[in-house]
TrEMBL record:
Record family assignment: Belongs to the BlaI transcriptional regulatory family.
Highest classification ranks of the organism: Bacteria, Pseudomonadati, Bacteroidota, Flavobacteriia, Flavobacteriales
GO biological process, one term: negative regulation of DNA-templated transcription
Keyword entries, A-Z: DNA-binding, Transcription, Transcription regulation
One MF term in the entry's GO annotations: DNA binding
Top-level taxon: Bacteria
Record Pfam families: Penicillinase_R
Protein's name according to its UniProt entry: Penicillinase repressor
Annotated InterPro entries: BlaI_family, WH-like_DNA-bd_sf, WH_DNA-bd_sf
Amino acid sequence: MQLSKTEEQLMQYLWKRKKAFLKDLLEDFPEPKPATTTVATLLKRISDKGFIEYKLFGKSREYFPLIKKTDYFSKHVNGLIKNFFNNSASQFASFFTKETNLSTEELEELKKVIDSQIKKQQK
């Protein structure tokens, strides 16, 4: 299951805070802030999708994520590779490195990350 763009934005705030009440999340939005009912609706939808849960404190709900940010984006990227790059990580990497205008330094850093991961997997 996937989040909409606005649901994803709200999740970003919740991942950053780790747990929050609706009023806290509302503070994170830039001006003009959405209506409280809009954020409440988004929280309900995200909860129904199984991404968040809450604890009741009287009438207030403290929300917290059920899925880690890295897990969510890992599935997102894997879906992208599967759907747009014929399930080929090398096609994705080729596209990514050519189309994002990375500097030589950034490409070198990526190479180090990849080399490090190769060493880990060879052990």
